[in-house]
Amino acid sequence: MSILVNSNTRLIVQGITGREGRFHTLQMKDYGTNIVGGVTPGKGGDWVESEGGNIPVFDTVKESIAATGANTSIIYVPARFSADAIMEAADAGIELIICITEGVPVLDMVRVQSVLRQTNARLIGPNCPGLITPGEAKVGIMPAHIHQKGSVGLVSRSGTLTYEVVQALTDKGIGQSTAVGIGGDPIIGTKFIDVLELFENDPETDQVALIGEIGGTDEQKAAEYIANHMTKPVTAFIAGRTAPPGKRMGHAGAIIEGGEGTAAEKIAAFNAVGVKVATLPEEVASLIAERM
Amino acid sequence: MKLHEYQSKRIFADHGVPIPQGDIATTAEQARAIAEKIGGKVVVKSQVLVGGRGKAGGVKLAKDADEAEELARQILGMDIKGLTVETVLIDPAANIQKEIYLGVVIDRALQKPVIIGSSEGGVEIEEVAKTNPEAIIHLPVGIRTGLMDYQARNLAHDLGLRRTHITQFVVIVKGLYDAFVNTDASLAEINPLVITGDGNLLAVDGKIVLDDNALFRHPNLGELRDIQEESPSERQAREIGINFIKLDGEIGCMVNGAGLAMATMDITKHYGGEPANFLDIGGGAKADKVAAALRIILKDPKVKSILFNIFGGITRCDEVAKGILEALEQVQTDVPMVARLVGTNEEEGRRILAEANFPTASSLGEAAEKAVALARGA
After folding, report:
1. How far apart are CA B72 and CA A225, in angstroms?
2. Do you find a cis peptide bond into A129, omega within 30 degrees of 0?
3. ipTM of the modeled complex
4. Beta partners for B140?
5. What percent of chain A has pLDDT over 90?
6. What would the DSSP string read from start to end of A264-289?
7. Which residue on chain A is closest to B283 by alpha carbon?
8. Res B378 pLDDT > 70
9. Nearest chain B CA: its distance from A55 CA (Å)
10. Which of B250, B268, B311 to mutate: most A Cβ within 10 Å?
11. Which of residues 138 through 167 in chain A touch B, CB cutoff 8 A?
12. Do the Cβ atoms of B140 and B198 come closer than 8 Å?
């Protein structure tokens, strides 16, 4: 089971012939992810060489689906082409789209979301590390070796901070069902509550770690969702308690605007519904261990 | 990236929004000439990228050209919240009957642009949100339809405008929305939109903040960047592709990843220190980039110790360790440092640093404690 990606994932890579795309394609394939093809407009007919078998390149997503039966796409194209790539994948019928690219214009994402709401496609990202179901499929850029198969689901707006928590869990012998990086942008395809719902319904997930940060109100909505809909325990961590207002802290979405989106508000929202909030990232693992 | 008032208002004017017929000056003599051309009372407005210019004495009313020249002389060169006034805008003084607030932002929850209106214009909208939230109207707009006339008319009605003003108002709010979309803004604001004594509407003050990620589509707008918007360190960091924000503390932080960088600041504070900066060095930190980041941190004389926190994923810890040591050959400093490297090849990374007598820590908590102790001279 797990969520979103597993051994049934048939992945294509949009932007497979670029430097990042090619590198991570080989990393994902090494992990055992079922990569069935890649797309780079103008490079159709080429092959990306790989020890585990060469990967065919197509000009369009539509063509790649017809040839390979792909159901998932990961996107590494430059920011200015990302909106087009996401919509191409959705239009061709891809069910799960993961956009790694950082720096997509906000209004492009507003347009993408207005289109995606009318399709069955689910977008994860942009500006995210992707997701991994340990032992089955890695669809992203995270270091695979820190993960271990298990029953803790992770959902996070951050990359390296998630790896930190994963490492702490694995060090304690606690494995993960699926770890999902939803991205650090203000407009993203999949939010905390969407992933919480998937974890709540996943029989292989027993507990959830939620890693949030300053900016927006998605953590507060997650707290409300947990209180009303979740039976599984959730442990949270919020980054940015010392962040000054009005400054973007690296992630485009990590900004306290008009006094809204502070770490204090988010921590208070979780505390109010009985969700434990760790002070240090590694403490997330200890709090989870206490409830095993 | 923020635009100045005069730049923002010119963009609004290009979209059909009426603005005062003023001009900018960088000398008192120019200010006088503009005031003479306008005739009558004028406002002399400092053009700096901070709020609260009026309270700081950076916006003054002049009864004639003589006084405009005198006020421009006072205001030019003035320091407002750390920024030097280099330009003033000379606008004809408006006869104000009523002030309205109009703004456009992206609503993150709705994932749509939203127009914000308030009949309490002329003050900061955050202030109104606190004192009188009912006075604020939110109007979400479909990105594919754009703002419809009926929506603009509804907004006019909700703001309590007279029937005679509605046609003008519709043009203005649609112009503001189009300016927002056409410039890829993250904020476009008219505050106040004034109803004058003779019954006309006029955008007396305006502000646009652009989405930096969309500047590739607007090279002409990118050229408007005022170097005072960022500190010299922040600008330097942006040019070499490092996310850096200067803070007031004494512990310099160098981290890979934005979330982890924030968490590192928080932990520093948790152990009794104050972070001197936010710094995300990004993936694959090589010696040159580490050295450049180190130079930026060390420019701040308040920095008493530096904490490296690197999670090696795709990046290998041994490479980062070598990068740190190479950087220290390029940058001479007595500031004590501690590094915490975890992830890929962490043992090798720690060995390299230990051989060079570079202090290391195994956990983030331990690293932060050490950095705080080092800053205190322990």
Report:
1. 56
2. no
3. 0.93
4. B114
5. 91
6. HHHHHHHHHTT-EEESSHHHHHHHHH
7. A160
8. no
9. 22
10. B311
11. 141-143, 145-146, 156-164, 167
12. no
Alpha-carbon span B170 to B155, nearest angstrom: 9
Is B368:B264 a contact under the CB 8 Å cutoff?
Answer: yes
Residues in CB range of A20: below 8 A, 6 or more apart:
A76, A100
**pLDDT at res. B285:** 65
Three-class SS state of B134:
helix
Contacts of B126 in chain A (CB under 8 A): 258-259
Among the partner-chain residues A187, A241, A249, the one whose CB lies closest to the CB of B111 is A187
Q: Give the H or E element holding residue B37.
A: helix B28-38
Q: Which residue in chain A has the smallest CA separation from B238?
A: A250
Are the Cβ atoms of A164 and B364 closer than 8 angstroms?
yes
Element (H, E) at A82: helix A79-92
Distance of CA B224 to the CA centre of its chain: 14
DSSP code of residue B254: E
pLDDT for B122 equals 82
pLDDT at A26 (0 to 100): 94
What size, in residues, is chain B? 378
Q: For residue range A108-128, list pLDDT tens digits in order.
A: 999 999 999 999 999 999 999
Interacting residues of B357 by C-beta distance below 8 A, sequence separation 6+: none
Q: Which of B5, B69, B189, B369 is catalytic?
A: B189
Q: Is residue B120 annotated as a catalytic residue, yes or no?
A: no
**The length of chain A, given as a count of residues:** 292
Token pair, residue A46, equals: 């080429």
CB pairs under 8 A between A and B: 163
Give the pTM.
0.93
How confident is residue B240, by pLDDT bands cut at 50, 70 and 90? confident
> Does residue B104 sit in helix, strand or coil?
strand
Other Cβ atoms less than 10 A from the Cβ of B85: the count is 22
Residues of A tagged active-site: 251
Percent of chain B past pLDDT 90, that is, above it, reads 74
A251 touches chain B (CB under 8 A): yes
Residue B312 amino acid letter: G
Partner-chain contact B211 A221, CB within 8 Å: no
CA separation for the pair B55, A47 (Å, rounded) = 65
Q: Pairing mode, if any, of strands A130-133 and A122-124? A: unpaired
Query: And the tokens for B185?
Result: 């803004």
pLDDT tens digits for range A213-253: 999 999 999 999 999 999 999 999 999 999 999 899 989 89
In this structure, which amino acid lies at residue B327? A
Residue B284 — very low, low, confident or very high, per pLDDT cuts 50/70/90? low
Residue among A30, A109, A110 with most chain B CBs within 10 A, to mutate: A110
